[in-house]
Amino acid sequence: MDITVKDIYEAINSFAPFILQESWDNSGLQIGDLGDKVRNPIICLDITYELVRTAIKDNSNLIISHHPLFFKPIICINRSNNLINDLINYNINVISTHTNLDVIPQGVSFCLASKIGLQECKILSPLKEQKFYKVSFFITEDKAEEILDNILTEGVGEFLKYKNCAFTSKGIGQFRVKKKAKPYIDKERFNENKVEFIVRKDKINECISKLKDIHPYDEIAFDVFEECINPLELGYGVIGKYKVSKKLHVVLKEVKELLGIDKIKFKGDLNKKINSIALCGGSGGAFIPDALKKGADLYITGDLKYHEVLEYADKIALADVGHRASEIPVLDILKKELESKFKKLVFRVFVENKDFYNYV
Question: Which of 49, 91, 132, 280 has its CA 20 to 30 A from that of 161?
Answer without folding.
Answer: 280
